[in-house]
């Protein structure tokens, strides 16, 4: 029965000692862990900043943004005129017909939110129409423009 018990040899004990020392060396200390963490954080930051868009707009020569994404088409308080026509044709071209003109409102101010009967910048027009199928053509012009709507150069 004594033959079944393994005997530790000197070579075996050296291998066990080397394995224990290797385990101690493979595990980094506090500063090694901190260094690894910082390097990983910098790496992730660089990758994410590469895909992120710039939040500050680039400026042109006069300090204005180089690209304007949206702006008003007309300046505030520009006087405009509204012409509203009714027609049975889908494409309306008879702008000289006074019978087709059902509403003309002149002197409207662009960006004025306090005008109108309710003080909210809106106007209303009510009428009765006997035609079953009707089209509305509404045109807004600047007040200084010519009102000849048949011309192609407007």
Automatic annotation (TrEMBL):
Keyword Transmembrane helix: yes
Presence of keyword Nucleotide-binding: no
Subcellular location field: Membrane
Keywords, comma-separated and alphabetical: Membrane, Transmembrane, Transmembrane helix
GO cellular component: endomembrane system; membrane
Taxonomy, superkingdom: Eukaryota
TM region(s), chain numbering: none
Membrane topology: Multi-pass membrane protein
Positions of region (Disordered): 1-23
Bias (Low complexity): 7-19
InterPro entries named in the record: CLPTM1
Family: Belongs to the CLPTM1 family.
Name of the protein: Uncharacterized protein
Annotated organism of origin: Mytilus coruscus
């Amino acid at each position: 029965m004594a033959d079944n018990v393994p005997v530790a040899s000197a070579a075996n004990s050296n291998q066990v000692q080397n394995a224990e020392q290797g385990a101690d060396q493979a595990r980094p200390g506090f500063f090694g862990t901190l260094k690894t963490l910082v390097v990983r954080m910098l790496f992730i930051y660089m990758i994410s900043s590469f895909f992120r868009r710039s939040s500050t707009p680039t400026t042109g020569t006069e300090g204005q943004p180089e690209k304007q994404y949206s702006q008003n088409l007309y300046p505030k308080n520009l006087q405009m005129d509204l012409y509203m026509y009714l027609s049975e044709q889908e494409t309306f071209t008879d702008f000289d017909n006074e019978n087709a003109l059902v509403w003309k409102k002149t002197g409207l101010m662009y960006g004025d939110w306090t005008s109108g009967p309710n003080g909210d910048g809106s106007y209303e027009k009510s009428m009765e129409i006997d035609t079953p199928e009707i089209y509305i053509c509404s045109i807004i012009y600047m007040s200084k423009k010519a009102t000849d709507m048949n011309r192609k150069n407007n």
